[in-house]
Design brief:
Length: 260
């Protein structure tokens, strides 16, 4: 019988370097957690180390049917903890507990969507160790004042401490991507309430960065009809604002909307 091997899917490049895989596994902080969930295990290069270290609390979510067949054949101990489905759509129910670690070599073309899902689950996802395209990792970890600082930077840094751990070269993958990758770690901070309307906060951040070349006076004016913001924010651009600045700006905008 021909061995079942997974196909490249969803823009994913499979990690083939066992040393890098072990380094990623070892990047999980050794704190108490209810479960560790690998997103997109593919050929199981990370899975080997994770099953060895966290067998009693390990889950994997894989959307590709051929990959699932390959993993069941090569890792028979998985049982029902290998979930066939899309991480973006599966229910995160009680079996995962309330203190989840998410880990994985994330498919390039849906990595941002996965991080937005993690934001939705921020009260339960306490740590993330993820390999992503290097420029995405840099953007997420960037500080205010940089041209790569953006929407994901602000939204993730509002709730997580971000660490850029290390760079991974193209030759560590099959097939080799055209760009470098990087591993980052997100650790949940102590913020449960931002001090502003959270839905409006997201809208303000997205509005500001969607027209990032404009000053905030102009970008907010185009996104919130009738709202004029005050100095010093008015003459700044989105990348100059910290998370705390965006909280202040959100509260100011909410007050102005209420007075219209």
């Amino acid at each position: 019988m021909t061995e079942v091997r997974p196909k490249k899917q969803l823009g994913q490049h499979f990690l083939a370097d066992n040393r890098i895989a072990q380094r990623i596994v070892d990047s999980v902080n050794q704190e108490e957690f209810s479960s560790i969930v690998e997103v997109g295990p593919g050929m199981g290069v990370l899975t080997k180390g994770l099953l060895t270290k966290y067998a009693d609390k390990f889950f994997a979510v894989e959307v590709d049917e051929e990959s699932v067949a390959y993993l069941h054949k090569n890792y028979p101990g998985f049982g029902q903890n290998l979930i066939y489905g899309d991480f973006l759509n599966i229910p995160i129910d009680d079996k995962f507990g309330n203190s989840i670690v998410v880990i994985g070599n994330l498919p390039y073309n849906i990595s941002s969507q996965i991080f937005f899902k993690i934001l939705d689950l921020r009260q339960r996802v306490h740590q993330v160790v993820a390999m992503v395209q290097r420029e995405v990792a840099q953007r997420i970890a960037e500080k205010p004042g940089s041209k790569t600082y953006g929407i994901l930077s602000v939204l993730l840094q509002a709730y997580y401490n971000i660490e850029y751990l290390f760079t991974v070269n193209e030759g560590s993958f099959i097939p080799p991507p055209k760009v470098k990758s990087a591993v980052i770690r997100l650790t949940r901070n102590s913020v449960n309430e931002l001090g502003c309307n959270p839905a409006l906060f997201v809208r303000v951040v997205k509005t500001a960065f969607n027209q990032r070349r404009k000053t905030l006076r102009n970008s907010i004016r185009s996104g919130f009809e009738g709202v004029e913001i005050d100095e010093p924010f008015a003459s700044k651009r989105a990348e100059q604002l910290s998370v705390a600045d965006f909280v202040t700006l959100t509260n100011s905008i909410e007050a102005k909307i209420a007075s219209l």
